[in-house]
Amino acid sequence: MNTKNLQLISSRIQNVPKKPGVYLLKSNQKIIYIGKSTKLRDRLKTYFFQKSYKSQKEQNLNKYIDDFEYLVTDTEQEALLLENTLIKEYKPIYNIRLKDDKSYPYIKINTQESFPKVYLTRNIVRDGSRYFGPYANVSSVRKTLSILNKLFPYRSCTKEITGNDPRPCLEFYIKRCIAPCSGESTKEEYEKIILQVIKFLEGNFTEVVKNLKDLMWKASNSLDFEKATILREKINSINNIYQKQKVVSKKNQNADIITLTKIHKENWIGVFHIRKGNLLGRNHFLLEKINSLKNTDSELISKFIEQFYLYSPYIPDEIITLDPIDSQVKISNWLSEKNNSKVIFTNPQKGSKKKLLEMAIFNEKEWSKQQKIKKSVNKTFISKALSSIKESLNLPSIPKTIECYDISHIQGSNVVGSLIVYKNGKPENSLYRRFNIKSFHGNDDYLALKEIIRRRIKYIQKNDSNKLNYLPDLILIDGGKGQLNAVQEELLFLGFNNLNLASIAKKNEEIFIPGVFEAIQLKENSPELFIIQQIRDEAHRFAINFHRSKRSMISLRSKLDDIQGLGPKRKKALLNKFNSINEIKEADIKTIESTPGLPKEVAERIKESL
């Protein structure tokens, strides 16, 4: 940075207040790092004018930054919230953040409802509900919900419960619901089941079993042996789950042990959840790759903790780490304030807590070994598969970049298309695209594919900085010969007839390529067929989900049409904020009212009508 610019920066920093807030560091007008501070002016000085740097990160950033912006907040906690919001929005290349950083899934129980549901959500709304999590992924939540519903017969429907339905649904007859909808059970009986679910999710297995045993003996004494048998089986199931939980503390300890493991230049955070003295489970979170800044382990764990607990509805009494983390006292104070009770950090050197930490570190090392083996095997498998695809489809080179296209509709309505991209045998989610078909109405997969290919090639013809400005090694079509010919015809018209094409038909998994009349039949269970099927199925999944989402939005629009005071502009704003009817149903009045241009009375009408 030249002297003139430094003088300008110095002058500007002198006018920055010594207040809490967020700073945005720039290089060539692009935001490359976002941070927070209790004293903005002093913090900015350390980046631009420090003679000796406290960390390698500050020294490295100084090489690149040439400008800054800042936002003042009232409190340090507000600065933390704003920092995380801006990091998610701008995704600066030098910030530490969780990989695939959309909101993590939780289990939600809205105890304010008369007959609460138990379901997965990513949105935490302050409406008095109980939330459990976060879970590392959706499959973990679904597995837990599956276990819960087998043990506790709560309702899985979204209907309004009046108790006046003529008969219960199938769930009642397979013992998965006690059917409050048809009056088979009372509100009080249903509430007891939900209470059991909450205790189970809190890790309070002993109390759950005690309550179920009381019910079992009552049923037995009333000669209701069928009910007693069902309850006994549930008790046995819970005891089996409980025995799998490692008892790690005789005290009713609630703590999270947080570890950091490095696998193939990736930073993985392990979180071990101890509830009521039992190891309830563990999660693994991947941190986004960080560009050349040399962040310490302490900084990595510190940033993870800020993001992990920022929106978490549950914060343990204690967080255990191997060494003190960056800003440990500040984070402890923030979490204590957020939790309305003291949250302590410990770095045990001896005793039972040291043994807990050693157990967690040992298990993380074992887990990391398995991940390395999986990666190595997977890499060999993919390499072999891609080489075989090259030979089988007579391609000029190994197809490192494969694009796949699929069409989805119901009898020609709401026709949509999908484009998914695999690079080196792995999905590249940032390159996925969805297409609303615009050139015609009706049922014609060939025309739909032609339109998608036309729109895809435009990215290349424009020669701009778009991520899709490249030529794939192979274009794969979900379909048969007809679909392949349609795409080939369009590419010929556009002057891109040199691209490699193939299609895969679901019937007999036959593969077609241009200029070859006979279908290619890859060996069953071969690596190359597995990869091609995986790519085809992913394109199909992506298209189906988009089609469902589109139909859901149309349904939502129709349900909003009759609400007084909700005109086109307000409806559009509402649809931009929420993705489905369920999201609006879940939201409280304040969240709905926060939609731009929506008065409170209209928000109340929306909530009431839905």
Key terms:
single chain; 610 residues; alpha+beta; GIY-YIG endonuclease; Nucleotidyltransferase, domain 5; 5 domains; seven-stranded mixed β-sheet; six-stranded mixed β-sheet; 19 strands; globular
Hey, roughly how much beta strand do the residues contain? 15-25%
CATH class of the largest domain: Alpha Beta
Q: Structural class, judged by helices and strands? A: alpha+beta
| Count of alpha/pi helices | 19
Which whole number gives the mean pLDDT? 83
End-to-end Cα distance, whole Å, is 58 Å
Largest sheet, in brief, is:
7 strands, mixed
The CATH architecture of the largest domain comes to: 2-Layer Sandwich
* Rg value: 28 Å
Helix-residue proportion: 40-55%
SSE diagram, text form:
Elements: H1 3-14, E1 21-27, E2 30-37, H2 40-48, H3 56-64, E3 67-72, H4 76-90, E4 106-109, E5 118-121, E6 130-132, H5 138-151, H6 170-173, H7 187-201, H8 205-221, H9 225-244, E7 246-247, E8 255-263, E9 266-275, E10 278-286, H10 297-310, E11 318-320, H11 328-339, E12 344-346, H12 351-392, E13 401-410, E14 413-423, E15 426-427, E16 433-436, H13 445-462, E17 474-478, H14 481-494, E18 501-505, E19 510-512, H15 527-560, H16 568-577, H17 581-586, H18 589-593, H19 600-609
Helix pairs in contact: 1-2, 7-8, 8-9, 12-15, 13-14
